[in-house]
Design goal:
Number of strands: 2
Helix content: 55-70%
Distance between the termini: 86 Å
Largest sheet: 2 strands, antiparallel
Number of helices: 32
Strand content: under 5%
Structural class: mainly alpha
Shape: elongated
Length: 524
């Protein structure tokens, strides 16, 4: 076939490239064609003035580019420039195939850079207004992938000032798959603070709200994911709330059959909670905390959703307007129960929320924790002992936070708390064991087996930038995506300069032991 591609007869070339395209649809043939030098022959065919030659050669390249190991060879062959040129073809079939090939090349970060250098970005933005909806879909998916990288977003921001407007215009197309991909592209762009503000400024909220109310789960999910990133910008809270999103978001908190959707929504609410400068009474009046409690207590709740809820409570506990309702409505008891849920990150977030409340050094918090200190079924003391003694918590962030809680209680000045802790042989013995087993070796480094978790007091939830998978080799129909999660920034609890949990736990245990032994009648 490769020999026939070099025939002097155009009809033979056409037949050979069509046959090769069919062969390239079979997984076992993809690498073999590239290894035998097929890409160079196909690039020459792409340069042909014949439309049929362009259709067949570009289609074959598209199929070959679906194999990860072939992408770099295709890029190095010089194919990107002619592919970009052919994506502007007036022939619908050539244009669609070339755009699909460009999409297949956006799955790797290094190739996304090469596409930018080949001038593909401007062409992809132009193709958002193509007549063919498949071409539009491939173009917007490719732009979504380019928007994953900081450098890609910088290029888009500096070179495509009309991008948001064009995306919002494309969003009006009555095509669910296309609408969903446009919103996911906006979501990736909204990983950048500039785009978070720009999407709202261009009227993006008016376009997103109907999608959040849609009967199609795909559209609701995409809109919630986008809103999650938009909510990171503190100036966006008021526009989002005033646009009428809050009731919809609160209803979706209890959407138990869609855990990924719940995580997006809860993380959005968490981002609002991290904004300490705005009025949160409307959130309380709308039932924010009631919905959170109902979700946590629902036996159907997914463990990842429960973890997101605990993380949200740890942020709400920081907020000057939300912490008091959390205490008054009995959330401390809920958090203590979450400290033993056998899901490491949830336990950490719950423990962190308690630590945040203790850190406020307020009488009502201490009174509530005293009530729970030895309450049957919800015993704060038992949970702290559990965390301090079980080997599975060694070297983890949750143990550091537990030690910090004890240290903060010892620092409260309340005699009842001081006596209870200082005279508690289980707690003191457990802390003493930690000071010995966590003693730093001469090298100053802990063993490599320790699990290191960040120590944080409050964080914003961001949906991870997502690379949309390229279309299938032969059909160019759809893209599948990885699951999303939130990422967060962190600051040290107490031990500045200690860069891992091994060191932090050891330092905190020494401080707790020193404080406890300074109390008259303490365990020795």
């Amino acid at each position: 076939m490769l020999y026939l591609l070099q025939s002097a007869y155009v009809d033979v070339q056409h037949c050979a490239s069509a046959a090769l395209g069919n062969l390239a649809g079979v997984k076992e043939n993809k690498r073999l064609i590239v290894e035998m030098g097929g890409v160079d022959c196909l690039v020459r065919q792409m340069l042909s003035p014949s439309t049929d030659a362009q259709i067949n050669s570009v289609g074959c390249i598209t199929n070959l580019a679906a194999d990860e190991d072939n992408k770099l060879a295709i890029a190095k062959s010089g194919a990107l420039v002619p592919l970009t040129r052919l994506a502007r073809s007036t022939d619908l079939r050539v244009q669609r195939n070339a755009t699909g090939a460009l999409l297949n090349m956006t799955h790797r970060a290094d190739l996304r850079i090469m596409l930018v250098e080949a001038g593909s970005v401007a062409v992809l933005v132009e193709l958002l207004e193509a007549k063919d909806e498949d071409t539009q879909y491939y173009a917007v998916t490719a732009l979504s992938n380019i928007a994953v990288d900081d450098s890609g977003r910088d290029i888009l921001w500096s070179s495509q000032p009309e991008l948001i407007s064009v995306l919002l215009k494309t969003l009006r197309k009555p095509n669910i798959k296309l609408q969903s991909q446009v919103v996911l592209t906006l979501r990736n762009l909204a990983s950048d603070e500039r785009y978070q503000a720009a999407v709202v400024a261009h009227g993006g909220l008016d376009a997103l709200l109907p999608l959040l109310k849609s009967s199609y789960t795909l559209l609701i999910m995409s809109a919630a994911a986008c809103l999650r990133n938009l909510s990171i910008h503190p100036d966006n809270e008021a526009p989002i709330v005033h646009a009428g999103f809050l009731p919809e978001l609160l209803d979706l908190v209890l959407q138990m059959d869609e855990p990924e959707l719940q995580c997006h929504v809860i993380s959005t609410l968490r981002n609002f909670g991290a904004n300490n400068g705005s009025n949160k009474q409307m959130f309380i009046d709308a039932g924010l905390l009631d919905r959170v409690r109902m979700a946590v207590e629902d036996k159907r709740v997914d463990p990842k959703v429960r973890c997101e809820l605990a993380a949200a409570l740890s942020v709400f506990a920081l907020n000057d307007q939300l912490w008091r309702p959390i205490v008054e409505l009995g959330f401390c008891e809920l958090l203590v129960n979450l400290m033993r849920c056998k899901h490491a990150e949830t336990e950490y977030n719950a423990c962190l929320a308690i630590g945040t409340l203790v850190g406020k050094n307020l009488a009502e918090v201490y009174a509530e924790l005293m009530r729970l200190w030895q309450k049957p079924g919800t015993c704060l003391r038992a949970q702290l002992v559990h965390i301090l003694t079980l080997a599975e918590y060694a070297g983890t962030g949750v143990r550091s936070v537990a030690l910090w809680i004890i240290m903060a209680l010892l620092n409260s000045g309340r005699g009842d708390l001081l006596q209870r802790i200082a005279h508690d042989t289980q707690i003191i013995d457990a802390v003493e064991v930690i000071t010995k087993t966590n003693a730093l070796p001469e090298s100053g480094n802990g063993p490599s087996s320790w699990t290191i978790l960040p120590s944080i007091f409050g964080s914003k939830g961001k949906d991870v930038d997502r690379v949309e998978r390229p279309p299938s080799a032969s059909t160019l129909t759809d893209s599948s995506s990885s699951s999303s999660s939130s990422s967060s920034s962190s600051t040290a609890i107490d031990c500045s300069g200690l860069d891992d949990e091994f060191q932090r736990t050891h330092s905190l245990a020494l401080q707790v032991l020193s404080m406890a032994r300074g109390i008259p009648g303490a365990c020795r």
